[in-house]
Specification:
Number of domains: 1
Helix content: over 70%
């Protein structure tokens, strides 16, 4: 999840440098979309793993005094 957040933080810093490259200047909207999609996928996967971990931790916890 932190990797996805890092992508979101880094995109505004990297996009001007990519836009300076003439080869990529025509497809900047597509590149920006791809970077944000990667960030969303990383955050979503991280949230899914954290949720699964919390669910498994709850099911392994004792259900009270025996």
């Amino acid at each position: 999840m932190l990797a996805g957040i890092g992508v979101f933080v880094r995109i505004p810093q990297v996009m001007p440098r990519i836009a300076d490259i003439d080869y990529f200047s025509a497809v900047i909207p597509f590149i920006r979309f791809c970077f944000y999609l990667i960030g969303i996928i990383l955050v979503g996967g991280g949230v899914k793993k954290i949720y699964a971990y919390l669910q498994s931790a709850d099911s392994e916890a004792p259900n009270g005094p025996s």
